[in-house]
Specification:
By secondary structure, the chain is an alpha/beta fold. The chain has two domains: 315 residues, Adenylosuccinate Synthetase, subunit A, domain 1 (Adenylosuccinate Synthetase, Chain A, domain 1); 95 residues, Orthogonal Bundle (Adenylosuccinate Synthetase, subunit A, domain 2). A ten-stranded mixed sheet has the order 9-7-5-2-10-1-11-15-19-20, sandwiched between helices. Strands 14, 16, 17 and 18 form a four-stranded mixed sheet that branches. Strands 3-4 form a two-stranded antiparallel sheet. Strand 16 and strand 17 form a beta hairpin. Helix 3 crosses helix 4. The longest helix has 22 residues. The mean pLDDT is 95. It binds inosinic acid.
Length: 432
């Protein structure tokens, strides 16, 4: 494959500018070809990255996409929450398909997802009834809860069985009260959990390290480091559509804390933007389409979750949310994905503002309630009928598709430097 004229590195953050599922996996995989280190900085196995190499499709949930290149060190940073069984399974899957997972490095400070986190995630959601977040039920939120109440168990604790058992016992005293007295379900027994987790320790031992130091050394040595975000801006615990969010910071600030680097290590922030928009789970969604247009986006775009298989809600590109994402993460350029899915629509719409009873919003509204009740103000653009999946240069695209890309640039105020027109690595156009 032709090599990409690469972006200035060493430090590039790549993150989702919408509600996740923007196609970050493919873009990270492409950029990883020139990277030395790829670091996941937040989230856990709630994420799903699909990478297509030749005829093969790989679904990863925890290991950074860079693992596909044997020259890359894939790192799971301290900001992540790790289900060790899932990590080991993912490594075994890669190994069985000829990809060496021995290079995967795991932060000693990352927090562990424990069986009670998964159980609590499920029962807490059930108790929310109609107010459900629609979590992935992987235990992500409860693991971060424990991190912030300082009751978490970290990867490093696996290597000190006495401390591990002590922390587990302490946690279970609390969790079993919650499970039985609040959520009316069965308690968990600590002994089998300790036994299972302490066997993970031996298997993970060679992977665990001080990943902040590893990344700092890589940067000092002039290596290229890619910081890979999971989920997306609007799912950020601080900047997203709270409470319908995940429990970590996918935005650029999260990369610094979650990998243990300072801002001077970063010189580029790539926002991945799908040419339309989708979300899974509950929460407001101003440009959602509950009609045949939305249905077509789901069908043509294959909009079903990699992790849970859930149907994603789809709608027109939201320029208000896009500008917001550019602002809160300091996005310097955009990778526009799935443009091919928009082929065949007569007219395309992009939201440029929201109207509510009180006001017109061109900036993302401060008050969450507005997002539930507003009406998007759309700009209409001409569609194109051609199949564009074979386009490899900007000039190969129909004029209307070129105009759509330019419109996204004008709205966002930053250049679109990459356009994806299909799932394969080669189905990508580079723009200067
Ligand atoms: P959690 O991250 O499992 O706690 O789920 C919280 C919210 O984030 C739910 O609406 C999920 O559907 C959503 N979510 C979590 N991970 C992803 C992802 O990788 N893509 C899209 N949505 C996600």
């Amino acid at each position: 494959m032709e090599r990409l004229p690469l972006h200035p590195m060493p430090g590039t953050i790549i993150l989702g500018a919408q509600w996740g599922d923007e196609g970050k996996g493919k873009i990270t995989d492409l950029l990883a070809e020139r990277a030395d280190v790829v670091v996941r900085y937040q989230g856990g196995n709630n994420a799903g990255h699909t990478i297509v190499v030749g005829d093969e499709k790989f679904a990863l949930s925890l290991i950074p996409s860079g693992v596909m290149y044997d020259t890359v060190t894939p790192v799971i940073g301290n900001g992540c929450v790790v289900d060790p069984a899932v990590l080991l399974e993912e490594m075994a899957m890669l190994s069985s398909r000829g990809i060496e997972p021995g290079r995967v490095q795991l932060s000693a400070n990352a927090h562990l997802i424990m069986p009670y986190h998964r159980k609590l995630d499920a029962v807490m959601e059930r108790y929310l009834g109609k107010q459900q977040i629609g979590t992935t039920k992987r235990g992500i939120g409860p693991a971060y809860m424990d991190k912030f109440t300082r009751q978490g168990i970290r990867v490093q604790d696996l290597f000190d069985p006495k401390i591990f058992r002590q922390k587990l016992d302490d946690a279970l005293k609390d969790k079993n009260k919650l499970l039985t007295k609040v959520y009316n379900t069965l308690p968990l027994d600590g002994a089998p959990i300790a036994e299972e987790y302490l066997t993970f320790a031996d298997r993970l031992y060679d992977h665990v390290t001080d990943t902040s130091l590893l990344v700092a050394n890589a940067i000092t040595d002039g290596q290229n480091v890619l910081f890979e975000g999971a989920q997306g801006t609007l799912l950020d615990i601080d900047h997203g559509t709270y409470p319908f969010v995940t429990s970590s910071n996918p935005t650029a600030g999260g990369a610094l804390v979650g990998a243990g680097v300072g801002p001077s290590s970063i010189n580029n922030v790539i926002g991945v933007v799908k040419a339309y928009i989708s979300r899974v789970g509950g929460g407001p969604f101003p440009t959602e389409l509950d009609d045949e247009v939305g249905e077509r986006m789901v069908e043509v775009g294959g909009e079903f979750g990699t992790v849970t298989g859930r149907r994603r809600r789809c709608g027109w590109l939201d320029g208000v949310a896009l500008r917001y994402a550019v602002r809160v993460s300091g996005i310097t350029e955009i990778a526009l994905t799935k443009l091919d899915v928009l082929s065949g629509f007569d007219r395309l719409k992009v939201a440029v503002a929201y109207d509510s009873l009180e006001a017109r919003y061109t900036d993302f509204p401060r008050q969450q309630r507005v997002l539930f009740n507003c009406h998007p103000v759309y700009e209409e653009l001409e569609g194109w009928s051609e199949d564009i999946s074979g386009a490899r240069e900007h000039d190969d695209l129909p004029k209307a598709a070129q105009r759509y890309i330019e419109f996204v640039e004008e709205l966002a105020g930053v250049p679109v430097t990459m356009v994806s027109v299909g799932p394969q690595r080669t189905a990508t156009l580079l723009r200067s």
